Structures are given as C-alpha cells and as structure tokens.
Amino acid sequence: MAFLQVNYYSQVLGMDRHMNVILPELSDHNPSWTADMLQDIPVLYLLHGMSGDQDIWQRRTSIERLVRQTIVAVVMPSTDLAWYTNTTYGLNYFDALAEELPNKVASLFPQLSTKREKNFVAGLSMGGYGAFKLGLGTTRFSYAASLSGALVGNPQFGTIPDETPHDYWTGIFGDLDKFVGSDNDLLALAKKNTHKPQLYAWIGEQDYLKPTNDDFIPKLRDLNYDITFETAPGKHEWYYWDKKIERVLEWLPINYVPEERLS
C-alpha cells in the first residue's frame, strides 16, 4: 500500500485543500496481486469528526495496517468544522465533498472505480452524519456507515454538547427552526432517496449520542432501508472506533482480508 498526502485546489471552496489516500500498489507485500487486479479499485471515503481533520484516522486508528492486503483505496478528506454542509456563510462543503472531491479523485487516480457499487462512505461522530448525508443525499455511494454518528434532527435540541455556541449552529445550518425537512435533515433526505444505499450504524451503549441513534434507526427501517444497527458497551472514544472500523471493512463488499490471515 502507498500512503499519499495530496494537496489540491478546490474550485468550489476557492482554497487549497488536503486529502490523504491509502492506495493499493504492486509490491513484495502482496505478491499475488497483478496489474489487472489494480484497475477499477473500490473506494472508501473515510470522514472525520468535529475535533479531527484529514490526518486523524491515520493517527488514531489502524486503518492503513488493516487494509494492507485488501484491494481497496481509502480517501480521507477534511470538512473542517462545517458538518459536510453547504454553510450559510458561503462555503459549500457538501458540494465540495459530494461532487468535486470524487471527480478530483477520479482524475488523479484513474485506476479507482467511479461505479456506484464500488464507492462507499463511512465516518465517526460528525463524520457519521456526513457519511449518511452523502449516502442519502447523492446517488454516488452504494454503502454508508456511521460509527457513533451524530444522526441528529435539529441540533439545537441538546444532542451535541451544550457548550457549542448557538451562532455556530446557525452559521452552519441557518435558521434551526427550519432544519427539519431541509437538505440537512437526514430523514428528509432518506424519504427522497430512490437508490437506497446499504447502511450500517454502530453506537456505544454509554455514548451520549445513543438516544439519537435509537430514535433515528427505526425511522429508516420504516422507509424500507436495509440497515445493520449494532450496539455494545462503549463511549464516544477512539478506542472503540479503532475496533469498529474493521467491522465496517468486513461489512463492505470488498473481499476484506482479516488481519489474522495475514503473514
């Protein structure tokens, strides 16, 4: 596997951006791979939470080690603190990540698949919201996974830590009284989506976001979404996300090679 740090210019945001990419390559570590196998490679977009950036999955988890003998590329972008959203202050992060970024990835790495059935998205906390938002709000991704996701309705109702200023939320989402039914409301997106991606969600039993997951998941099932929902003892911490990202890899249709089978 190659690990690449990519700087590129975003026309949508009008600024330089960064993404990290784990890219399958021919090497002595995977002698059974051929050049033909490294075409039309599946892609997993891996999204960060509120305190992270494009580096955080690499720093806090074993993601590079876990995929080292699985033919899948992992793209780790940043949304800053913008919640994968077209903000009211004029920076369209949703458009930049949902449309511009995959097109940029395709142009820089033509060996990566652009097929919906081979494009996936996953994230934690804010990134869990982002993963479901990209999965439900576009037709680009066939699988979307949330770990400890902020699967919230109106964010002013206390599902996110209370110390976050009200002006921050309105800067991202606008008038919070109009959140429900908007393009930022995951349930509204789910109702409009006609492609119905496969969904996965995990949440720790001691996580402060568990009530939002418990409330949201049945509503998706009522809309006939195929969603795997799992819980276990756990808090809102990297210790658990490091473990559960492997569960996501097992769930995805990528022929994941578990670590115990590696030499």
UniProtKB/TrEMBL annotation:
Classification via Pfam families: Esterase
Keyword Lipid biosynthesis: no
InterPro entries xrefs: AB_hydrolase_fold, Esterase-like, Mycobacterial_A85_antigen
Protein keywords: Hydrolase
UniProt superkingdom: Bacteria
This protein's record includes keyword Hydrolase: yes
Gene3D superfamilies: alpha/beta hydrolase
Gene Ontology MF, one: hydrolase activity
Protein name: Alpha/beta hydrolase family protein
Organism: Leuconostoc pseudomesenteroides
